[in-house]
Amino acid sequence: MDGFRLQPLIELAEERSRLVAQELQRLRQQWAEAEHKLQQLKSYLAEYRSRLNDNVCDGVSVNVMRDFQRFIAKLELAIRAQVEEVERYRQRWETTKRLWMEREREIKAYHILRERHIRQLQHAENKREQRVQDESAQRIACSRARDPFDPPQ
Q: Do 6 and 110 contact (CB within 8 A), yes or no?
């Protein structure tokens, strides 16, 4: 962009931001899948507790009751582990989101520098054009001053 020396840095920053955004999207998907799995486990737990209650009301052997209780304990353990997994994904997503926001701020700073550079180039060009116009007007004025009866060329 008109010799803007930081352009390669802008492109690098944009690529880095794009890669972090992709990672952010991937982590959000994994987080959602982990939350879905947690909800399934909670649903299974509620279903098995309901079954246990139904079986207790209908009369059930001690062995069947222990099996239900063991299975429910395993589900509760799996739920605790899944809650931790969901939290890990949430934390990774939050960390990656902060990184992405830093990358976006970096890009914005480079864009501000580029805009400043463009304004400086435009200002220099405007001054050059003004100088050319002033010199031209001065030549015309000088030529008229020398010979007021000659038409300007």
A: yes
Tell me if the domain spanning 7-146 has CATH number 3.40.30.10: no
For the chain, which residues make up each domain, given as ranges? 7-146
Distance of CA 110 to the CA centre of its chain: 17
Indicate the pTM of the whole model. 0.70
Q: Give the DSSP letter of residue 2.
A: T
User: What are the pLDDT tens digits along the chain (153 aa)?
Assistant: 457 888 999 999 999 999 999 999 999 999 999 999 999 999 999 999 898 888 777 777 888 888 989 999 999 999 999 999 999 999 999 999 999 999 999 999 999 999 999 999 999 999 999 999 988 888 888 877 776 565 555
